[in-house]
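Section: Multi-chain targets

For targets with more than one molecule, the full set of components is provided together so that the structure can be written out for the assembly as a whole rather than chain by chain. Components appear in the order listed by the source. The example entry contains two components.
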Amino acid sequence: MKEKNFIQIIKNTLNSDYIGDDCANLEDLGIVITQDSLVEDVHFVTKYITPYELGYKSAMVNISDIAASGAKPAYLTVAISLPADCDEKFVEEFYRGMKSGAKEAKIVGGDITGADKIFISITAIGKTQGRKISSRKNAKPGQKVVVSGIHGSSAAGLNELLNAGKRIEDKFTKAHFMPEAQLEFSKKIAETINYDYAMMDTSDGLLDALSTIACESRVKISVDFSKIPYDKDIEKFTDWQNLVLYGGEDYGLVAVLEGKDTSGMIVIGEVKEGCGVEILNGNCCEILSRKDIEKKLYSHFGENHEN
Amino acid sequence: MKEKNFIQIIKNTLNSDYIGDDCANLEDLGIVITQDSLVEDVHFVTKYITPYELGYKSAMVNISDIAASGAKPAYLTVAISLPADCDEKFVEEFYRGMKSGAKEAKIVGGDITGADKIFISITAIGKTQGRKISSRKNAKPGQKVVVSGIHGSSAAGLNELLNAGKRIEDKFTKAHFMPEAQLEFSKKIAETINYDYAMMDTSDGLLDALSTIACESRVKISVDFSKIPYDKDIEKFTDWQNLVLYGGEDYGLVAVLEGKDTSGMIVIGEVKEGCGVEILNGNCCEILSRKDIEKKLYSHFGENHEN
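Its structure, encoded as tokens over all components, is:
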């Protein structure tokens, strides 16, 4: 995983305290900021995704990062580089989709240039306005793990697509191309919790989020598979349990809170002393290190998803 | 100029008040924000620019946009997409350069992904902190046009490069690869002027800046060529006057102020009723519409510069 090495080099070169969570928390300004790119033939192929969906999803992945921080999405800037064959219709549909994916956040600027392939890079700003901002380092033994959203549907949609070589118009495809950021869940937690807590989105899979929080907080997270919310129809796919655990791009949220604060929420596990992630599944208890999980994420889905 | 059409479509689709200046002024947060991309083989070629210079210049072009707004550069986020053959050394040098180009602004986050070609997109945030923020719409008849920086050197460096097919190590090359944002000039104006004023950087050439301000403010700008600061050694180049007027990437600043506020500054012209730009050059007075200037910018330097 070359990019992980690069991130370490960047941290060393910049010697910055900010690099770590998806969002940087700029306390002096009362904002969080995040930037994410989508590259043609790495993160998407135009054969499958419509310009509207591409715009929607580009905005939404950044809105989801803001939701994971607990802040309120406020502004977006958008840089897009386009090949010569992208026409006015593409641009209009892309920006219509982006406006929809941005929800209440306003698109306030950006840049447009030429390129051989489509490059999209979006920056999102969230206002903290008295909300408590999360960090992956905050999970503590004894706390409970809660989730929002359902897991595995987006990866199931991607699987269908790659197997068929064309779009299958069903709920899994929709989950893949038009995911929803968990803004209500985020707001509820960030406005009510008054201690440091951990929260992260499941953009790279539920187990990626759980193991990252476990690793950054130096704890073990124990999860009961039967408690994880997923669409029952996913069981028709071979390997469906891996879709639920390791499939990315559902943009659910995982948070780690004191038990007293989890009423009405979906609790899937708890935090223990130790490290890594433990999955209870019927009579089986699988214990996975961060390295095991990275290997599984990579072997199931590759470093980058093509959709 | 296809990108100009696209910007109009984007404005129509988003129906946003913010799109216009390089920076969006987010008054509720006390910040301005800008985002700019650099694409391999469109804005640069790795044959000529070093990774350090590429990092430096990527940061600097965004710092210059913040300077043009009058705000104080505060934070940067950086998204970079890299082909598989970019190694650790490239990443380290690129970020070292970027840290240098960012000046006092802190690099607080971003994204790193794979791609076929290098794609860099940087977002910069400036704090307004009581400074007066510029807009291209603010020039008024009777006001004076002032500039900072020297003009044409960067384009001369690019010319040398393209003619020789290799780097010529001289002051023009340096101006092209390691330009300086005009932070002191920006600060002085933004901290002392107490009325709405216009300011813009010369990233796309001096006449691009002058004609954009003229067009957005619905005025005519009259400039005396003999007052424009440039390096005398540029006169060795054929077509040197066009380099001074139309050459991009010097990252100077142009501001339009009341005459009483220009003491100690380089005044190159004044604002009149009318539209377009008027260049006094010896006995000749050339009158250029925005369209004439766009055509000249395009024919001299193309829509995108390769450097």
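Chain A touches chain B through 61 residues (CB under 8 Å).
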